[in-house]
Amino acid sequence: MIPYGKQNINEADINSVIEVLKSDFLTQGPVVEDFEKAIAGYCNAKYAVSVSNATAALHLSCLALGLSKGKLAWTSPNTFVATPNSVLYTGAEVDFVDIDPNSYNISFDELRKKLVEAKAKRKVPDVLLPVHFSGQSCEMEEIYQLSKEYGFHIIEDASHAVGAKYNDKPVGSCEYSDLCVFSFHPVKIITTGEGGVITTNRKDLYDLLIRLRSHGITRNPDLMTKESDGEWYYQQLELGYNYRLTELQAALGLSQLKRLDEFVLRRNQIAERYNILLKDFSIKLPTVLTKNYSSYHLFVIQIDESKCKKSHKEVFSDLRKNGIGVQLHYIPVHTQPYYQSLGFKIGSFPASEKYYAAAISLPVYFDLKDSEQDKVVETLKVCLGS
Ligand SMILES: *Cc1c(COP(=O)(O)O)cnc(C)c1O
């Protein structure tokens, strides 16, 4: 089976983890700090906070921006459930904004329309979580303008988009957001096994995030409510969590980060090759907007059932039967039973549902060989039956 995604681990990665195993610190040591500095440097952001996974990163980001009972956040229905779940963890409410049928990202027009209506009802969101689907940034300049006009904060869910660029600047620079979240799950662009990072330019949020990922505890006397009792002393200032990344994971991440540009370049080459090889197929190919350099976490095609002898479901299962490990990203979150139980209705975000009925993610990863890609293309041709 050719999978839809796969990590690449080399000798240098392995040796960097072994070195940590032989060192004094397995967690809360110097490599985590080095990794954070390296990510912040890569993204051109002032600060980076590493955590145990991107779901934890989203949760802490929501908390840091004050989400709690009575507050509201919006996101895209075309995302992994972790994005809206992280809002619900805080006790806040979540709602969705439908997607753009070309980029599959949150639709700027739908967002503006929904904001106008929300303002009239005095229910403007406190936070927006745009998701950079498949590795291409949302229209952040325009969204940022709206955030100033309507007064909401922005957390970028860039789980797919480490190594991507927007307006020639790295995603994660937080030029148009308060916080930006990356995932280092093995299926993403670079990996730490499990892991996530939050980047920001705001010192206040950075200090808070550092405490929240480690029980809400500080050892910094400047932040304490009274004079320190002694050198052993710490204070808990908030209800935090144990969301720390280990030294082993940070070492792997630091080593992987060195090859990030190479990974993303190869993914772009694969995407370019798909675009050429598939151009005469009766399918819809991905659209990358001009301001974007995508990290191509995913290469999504859409089946046109009117031009194809088989249904979307049949094409998908035929591909799997013939050794192509396709996937579908994503089932619109509002259609999940849990979200249904919260009152969301099928049909309320039609563009995301229409997309879901047609989408298939083809294999794209650093080690995918041209010959394997050719097999994907040939198999797809047969499965489409056209
Ligand atoms: C993978 C992913 C997450 C969650 O990442 P984890 O590191 O597995 O917690 C969140 N949002 C999106 C869009 C993702 O793809």
TrEMBL record:
Keywords: Aminotransferase, Pyridoxal phosphate, Transferase. GO terms for biological process: polysaccharide biosynthetic process. InterPro entries: DegT/StrS_aminotransferase (IPR000653), PseC (IPR020026), PyrdxlP-dep_Trfase (IPR015424), PyrdxlP-dep_Trfase_major (IPR015421), PyrdxlP-dep_Trfase_small (IPR015422). The modification N6-(pyridoxal phosphate)lysine is found at K188. The active site is at K188. One of its GO terms (molecular function) is pyridoxal phosphate binding. Belongs to the DegT/DnrJ/EryC1 family. This is Putative pyridoxal-phosphate-dependent aminotransferase. The lineage of its organism: Bacteria, Pseudomonadati, Spirochaetota, Spirochaetia, Leptospirales.
